[in-house]
Amino acid sequence: MVEHKDIQNPDDYGDGDYAKFEMKLFSTNTKKSELEEICMILAHIPDKRAQDLLKKFKDSERADEVEWLDIAADEGQFHYLSPMNEQEERDYLALKVVQEIEDQIIELEVEYDNLKLDLEKKEIEQEAIKELVKNGEIDKDEELGFHDYKIMLESQMEDLEKQIFLKEKIFEQIKKSIKTKKYKDVDSMYMRNIHF
Question: Cα–Cα distance between 105 and 167 in angstroms, integer?
Answer without folding.
Answer: 7
